[in-house]
Amino acid sequence: GKIDKLNIILKTDTQGSLDALQEAIKKIKIENVEVEINIIHSGVGNITETDVMLASASQAIIIGFNIRPDTNIQKIAKSEKIDIRLYKIIYDLLDEIKSALKGFLKPKIEEYVCGQAEVREIFKIPKIGTIAGSYVLNGKISKNDNIRVIRDGKLIYEGKVSSLKRFKEDIKEVNADFECGIGIEKFNDIKLKDILEFYIFREIKEK
């Protein structure tokens, strides 16, 4: 259905991207849809609890560009039933706002975070590359998942898992509170304390 106002809270990684997005969002127009897009709050930096509470009070969606909210913020947003949408490509973000204006905010495919691990040791192995000695913080991680590297709340890299090992044995998955060695395809710039987030895309079941 048509909506008459779309409230947005916008958080980005840099001032440059914030300015560019605010300009681009203001210019969005959809034929035959009379909707006011209202950026009620915007800023540089990660999504905070204040942002979530403001979204809850004003029925806004939170849009994050090139940032990743920490697990605690994700939990609060879930309990407050706040929609946090994260992007790294400006056009994807603008397309989704256009879809929202047409009344199609819910995609048929959603991203699901399976688990997170923290890098605690780094091993450089000749001909193989860097292996992240990691501790699984929550959930369950699998060799078939997609992986992203998060450093200080910022997205550093997204790609595929090249290897998952425990005590030199290749394994398919690791549960929370266990340690393992993780190799990332085409990425060796791993640092201590990096958060490795494992995720999949899954179809949303129609209710």
Question: In brief, what are we looking at here?
Answer:
This protein has 207 residues and is of the alpha+beta class. It has helices at residues 15-26, 49-58, 71-79, 90-101, and strands spanning 5-12, 36-44, 61-65, 84-87, 109-125, 129-142, 146-151, 154-166, 169-170, 173-175, 179-184, 195-203. Helix content is 21%, strand content 46%.
The average pLDDT is 90
Strand order of the largest sheet: 5-6-11-8-7-12
Q: How far apart, in Å, are the first and last alpha carbons?
A: 18 Å
Shape: elongated
Number of domains: 2
Order of helices and strands: EHEHEHEHEEEEEEEE
> Which regions have little confidence, pLDDT < 50, spanning 5+ residues?
none
Instruction: Assess the beta-strand content as a share of residues.
Output: over 45%
Number of strands: 12
Enter the CATH topology name of the largest domain.
Answer: Rossmann fold
